# Entry
Amino acid sequence: MRTPGNCPARQMCNAAGQSGQEIAYNHLDLPRKITKNAAVLGKYSYLSDGTLVETVRGDGCGLA
# Structure
């Protein structure tokens, strides 16, 4: 599956179609990890019902 700009699905693309951020999803199809150029920007943890319980920046600091 491709998105506009000829970029693979589940990747954020700029107007030129070049990859920017990549989003990894869990088994509930919720975002698990966001990376850009192999650097982790954020990680998310959920309960089994999909409730968000933790958000952590790439440097390990939690977000409110």
